[in-house]
Amino acid sequence: MANAPQPEPVAPVPAAPAAPPGLTTTQAPFIEEARAHGEIYIHQPYELYSDENQATWGRLLERMQPRWQRYANQRYLDGLHRLQLSPQRIPRLEEINHFMRPLTGFSARAVSGYVPSYHFFDCLSRREFPTTITIRDGRQLEYLPEPDIFHDVGGHVPMHTDPAFAEALVKFGAVAAAAARRASTARGPHGDPHERLRRLTSNVRAMSRFFWFSVEFGLMRSAGSPDALKVYGSGLLSSFGEIAHAIDAPEVQRYPFQIEWVVNQAFEIHHYQPLLYIVDSFDHLFALVTELERWLLAGKLDNVAPGDPEVSETDLASFLHGDKAPPPVTQP
Questions:
Q1: Could you read off the pLDDT of 152-169 as tens digits, one per residue?
Q2: What is the pLDDT of residue 243?
Q3: What is the pLDDT of residue 223?
Q4: Which of left, alpha, beta for 191 (phi over 0: left; psi -120 to 50: alpha)?
Q5: Angle between helices 163-185 and 193-211 (to 10 degrees)
Q6: CB-based contacts of 302, cutoff 8 Å, min separation 6
Q7: How many C-beta neighbours within 10 Å does residue 6 have?
Q8: CB 50: neighbour CB atoms within 10 A?
Q9: Strand partners, 132
Q10: pLDDT tens across 52-85, in order?
Q11: pLDDT per residue over 266-297, tens digit each?
Q12: β-strands 275-279, 219-221 pairing
């Protein structure tokens, strides 16, 4: 009996290429691995962004455009125009830096997340801005306490194209360096190391409050109409709800920026800010940061009011060993 013909083998269907794992905030294996190895400064692995990540960026950018036009200060809008951020794709940091460096010397430097306080301010002194590369979950578009690339690039980076604002950021770095030098030499009465740490804790808390109420949540008088207020703080500029609340809500208290108030004012990060401070211009902001440095050196920040933000041991260690901050990265 003849053998029945055998069927031809069927070639396997090639598997569809695996979707990128994504770089979603708190859900990114690349970031978790970097943190596990103690890596603060990283690269932007652009190929890992998922389609959902890209769509989230587009939604965030497009819905903020009308809010920015209404509430943002003109220097921010000018920077936004220069950068030409596209809703079609998450920006590559090297492209941003290509446009930003010729304007102010600043560049965005990718980080894996939290940067200890001294290292953060030291980056500013070198005209580098630590920039988160993950993006929030598309199901949660509102402002998050943990920064993401929309907060850092959409909120902060357009301001870095302005020379006056950039100089104020660099001056923050100088204040931090002064605090680190002072901590390295101060020993307190009878060489008490606990007193040195107490003073340093107060200094770091004062700088954090100043930065919060200016760079993150600051308001500015409008150049064309001094009675009108505009937003320049990046926490507000990256929040669809709070940018309007900061300007329009009658319950928000808004006061002229005074150092003695700001450095003693605690804040909480998990709700809209009930208290905001106003500067007249970026030249005024630079003058305030310069005055902050004088206060630090005169010991006037050694006893600020207790309360939030908490100052971690990691932050204190970064100031005590500030001379060992990582060197700058040479970018293309």
A1: 999 999 999 999 999 999
A2: 96
A3: 75
A4: left
A5: 170
A6: 199, 202, 203
A7: 6
A8: 16
A9: 111
A10: 999 999 999 999 999 999 999 999 999 999 999 9
A11: 999 889 999 999 999 999 999 999 999 999 99
A12: parallel
User: Which residues have CB under 8 Å from 53's CB, separation 6+?
Assistant: 22, 23, 24, 90, 135
Q: Which two tokens stand for residue 158?
A: 């357009």
> Cis omega before residue 309 (within 30°)?
yes
Q: Which H or E element spans position 297?
A: helix 282-297
Euclidean distance between the first and the last CA atom of the chain, given in angstroms as a whole number: 75
Stretch among 52-61, 133-142, 208-217, 228-237 having the lowest mean pLDDT: 133-142
Distances (CA, A) of 72 to 39, 67, 121, 147, 230: 35, 8, 25, 19, 5
Q: Which domains does the chain have, with CATH numbers?
A: 29-322 (1.10.800.10)
Radius of gyration of the chain (CA): 23
